[in-house]
Amino acid sequence: VLADFQHDGIDLICVDKHKDLQCPRDILGHTFNFKDAAYADDLALVGSSLPGLEDSLQRLQNITGPIGLNVSVKKTEWMWLFAPPQDLCAAALVPNTPCCSAISLNGRALVHVRQFTYLGAVFSEDGALQHELDTRISKSKSKLFSLSFLWKSKTELGHKIRLFKQLVLPVLLYGCETWTLRHDDWAKIEVFFNLA
């Protein structure tokens, strides 16, 4: 089943396994495909329309609710990927303003956000890298300055370089595999390296 998890995902079928933990009748025998189950308590749903996303969220609650895994409306946030349609969102161009409460679960509106942090990486609605890059550079500077005693010591330069690569660079480059850098972004990174 796990042969090609990243591409094919895992098919799960709802079946009765225990008399106290029965599958809801409307989904008994139904197959669900999960492509990313890295963290059991975190889930990202992607939809091509607001009604489709809301329906997927409600179906998830219908499936997991009967076994005690409820979707928390208080902790659940949503955002557009890239730009929101301006006809659906009058506040689309107003910075730091929630767009709308177009998605709800059990009649309660979910909070719309323009950016959020997931596993240390910052995702933003506009798809820009600036928020993530600013966060990474800030954390790297903090790490760099926390080791100032080391940089001022009489430790050999080769050891300092090795420690910089092992302790500071991973903080800066966390998640960089997904970055699409512009000239301005490279300039920010170069400024950080000149500081270091």
The 3D shape can be described as: elongated
Order of helices and strands: HEEHEEEEEEHHHHH
Q: Give Rg in angstroms.
A: 22 Å
**Which regions contain 5 or more consecutive residues with pLDDT less than 50?**
1-7
Query: How big a fraction of the residues is strand?
Result: 5-15%
Mean pLDDT level: 77
Distance between the termini: 47 Å
The strand line-up of the biggest sheet is: 1-2
| Tally of DSSP helical segments | 7
Largest sheet: 2 strands, antiparallel
Class derived from helix and strand content: alpha+beta
State the share of residues found in helices, binned by percent. Answer: 25-40%
According to DSSP, the number of beta strands is 8
What does the model show?
Helix 3 runs parallel beside helix 7 (183-195). Helix content is 36%, strand content 12%. The protein is an alpha+beta fold and 196 residues long. The N and C termini lie far apart (47 Å). The chain is elongated and about 70 Å long. The strands form four sheets. It has a two-stranded antiparallel sheet. Mean pLDDT is 77; it is low at 1-7. The protein contains seven helices and eight strands.
Structural features:
single chain, 196 residues, alpha+beta, two-stranded antiparallel ribbon, 36% helix, elongated, disordered N terminus
